[in-house]
Design goal:
alpha/beta; Rossmann fold; hydrolase; AB_hydrolase_fold
Amino acid sequence: MKITPPQPFLFEGGKRAVLLLHGFTGSSADVRILGRFLQENAYTAYAPQYKGHGVTPDILLQTGPADWWQDVLDAYTHLKNLGYEEIAVAGLSLGGLFSLKLGFSRPVKGIVAMSTPTKMDSSSPIIAGFHDYVRNYKKLEGKTPEEIDQEMEAYKDAPMNTIAKLKDEINEVNSEIDMIYAPIMVVQGKKTIW
């Protein structure tokens, strides 16, 4: 089965823009409904697609937080180049972390951080999330449960280097968070494991 990878989107709706950022193993599709809502309410919404996301797990493992952060910076620059002066940023999970990082790296009008990791005592939720991503992707490829179980062995310890780098990102944001001067809205669920 041919799988069509998710694409970035730009929904033009007004002079003010909101940069929408998805999470680890996620895609621009995760923030698409929010993007349409913003467009209907006179905001322009733009969501990049991080390198390695929405494609095969092997490709995801060839990328890391530095690549994804560059995607965020490129997306911000893209909105600036389109003429948007008022840019807010909203992100989910890893996207929330990058939203906060953008808040002390670039001028933004406001920040929404949803289910954002602020500490990582255990990497097990990220590993479990990665394994779910691999398993679901293999299902989309039309693999049988037996084939999937066999192929999962190759990914058993795969994201460990990425997890170490994600911890570094969290530590950087925690150490610089007092440099954010834009308004911040934090959305966190009761059962969020961060």
